[in-house]
Design brief:
This protein is α/β, with parallel strands linked by helices and 386 residues long. It is built from 14 helices and 9 strands. A 9-stranded mixed sheet has the order 6-5-4-3-2-1-7-8-9. The longest helix has 15 residues. Bound molecules: iron/sulfur cluster (2 copies).
Length: 386
């Protein structure tokens, strides 16, 4: 089968000159996002302790099927090549498969993230025959003990079962997505072996203190030494996808593959279940809310005209990092990680490899530790997939 390639700067291998030219263009923003994440629902059958959207409960104001179709029509007009669908667990929406098919039929490829609970043998068979749907199975430990500590009892077995179904159906190249924590970072070789075993591709992402991740940050974020080890491992394994999420580690030496920039509001954004548009999936907070797809002008108006995105596309001040010789590589790190640890946006990343983040955190109060971004207390059970 042919899978969509992720057009996100997910491990782009570019010469330094091309990389800097492309990065400059992207800093100024594009006509349409190249990495649009759409959280279709906050309903979830799991309660992962690091969930960036604090998912678990469905919001009764979720976009209807008709409204979702209208958004997809708009994305098609804007020539958005593909969308990342997530949640919550997106497959619990009863119109999930309808919307996936609707997007593909309208020229918008889909990659969706799942904990595996919606992937049985029949679904895997259907997915294996689809040219424009890619699947990302989330797993946060190479064994049940490590994974279930974060994702809940039985979640490792569920994910493995889904991967078995995908392999049996002949679906090659699906993604195994792992959030790097201090408890699993030593398992990177095991994750890679797991991906090889299933004919999958490994994707590692950075743990950020967003949603429930703010509460579990101290327990889960990697140590300085682990960050260094990961950096060298990534340099040695350029085929492993990272979604450009570890660019703060580039201050350790050679730049990691990717554009090495914060794409929030420039090339990246998120639509949440009720249609709110945020600058990136890791900044679900009013300060980064640019508009709503239900507003006049829809998503295109928000992407192209919102004041917030215009501001994010302006050259950003290096601030406290101005005198750092590694700023070109590290760019001061991740805006979301700074915001949710209370560090000013022009301050150093909380995991600055030179150690400036710790000092910056000590001098400020954390912005939103404990903030729950799930909306209302409407609990729904596991819904059958259609
Ligand atoms: S805020 Fe962080 S996660 Fe979001 S786009 Fe910027 S660097 Fe990436
Ligand atoms: S001081 Fe700033 S630019 Fe330098 S390594 Fe730390 S976060 Fe990156």
């Amino acid at each position: 089968m042919t899978l969509i390639d992720n057009p996100r700067p997910d491990n782009l291998v570019l010469s330094p000159v091309k990389r800097s030219g492309l990065a400059d263009q992207m800093k100024a923003g594009l006509d349409a996002p190249i990495c649009l994440t759409w959280e279709l629902t906050y309903a979830c059958n799991l309660q992962c302790v690091h969930c960036l959207s604090s998912s678990g409960r469905r919001d009764p104001r979720e976009l209807t099927t008709d409204e979702c179709e209208a958004v997809i029509d708009e994305l098609q007009r804007m020539q958005v090549f593909y969308i990342n669908i997530g949640g919550g667990e997106p497959t619990v929406r009863k119109d999930f498969w309808h919307l996936v098919h609707y997007a593909v039929d309208h020229g918008v490829g889909v990659k969706f993230s799942t904990n595996g609970s919606g992937i049985d043998a029949t679904v895997a068979e259907q997915l294996a025959h689809s040219d424009y749907v890619d699947v990302q199975i989330s797993i946060d430990g190479a064994d049940a003990e490590t994974n279930d500590h974060v994702r809940g009892n039985g979640s490792f077995a569920t994910a493995v079962e889904a991967m078995e179904h995908l392999r049996a159906a002949g679906f090659e190249g699906f993604k195994i997505s792992v959030v790097m924590t201090r408890h699993n970072i030593a398992q990177v070789d095991d994750f890679r072996a797991m991906a090889d075993r299933y004919g999958a591709q490994l994707r590692l992402t950075r743990f950020r203190p967003s949603g429930r991740g703010a509460d579990s940050w101290d327990d889960l974020h990697p140590t300085d030494q682990q960050q260094r080890d990961l950096y060298h491992w990534l340099i040695d394994h350029p085929d492993v996808l990272t979604g450009d999420s570890f660019f703060h580690l580039s201050a350790l030496g050679e730049a990691l593959p990717g554009l090495n920039l914060c794409g929030a509001g420039r090339v990246v954004c998120l639509i949440d279940p009720i249609g709110d548009v945020y600058a990136c999936p890791f900044v679900l907070h009013d300060e980064f809310l640019a508009g709503n797809v239900r507003d006049e002008g829809g998503f295109a108006q928000v992407w192209q005209q919102s004041d917030l995105f215009a501001e994010l596309r302006q050259p950003q001040s290096a601030g406290a990092c101005a005198s750092c010789g590694h700023f070109d590589a590290c760019q001061g790190g991740c805006m979301a990680a700074k915001f949710f640890t209370g560090i000013p946006l022009d301050g150093p990343d909380p995991e600055c490899v030179l150690g400036h983040g710790e000092a910056a955190m000590d001098s400020v109060a954390r912005a939103s530790v404990g903030k729950d971004h799930s909306r209302t207390a409407v609990v729904i059970g596991r819904k059958p997939i259609g």
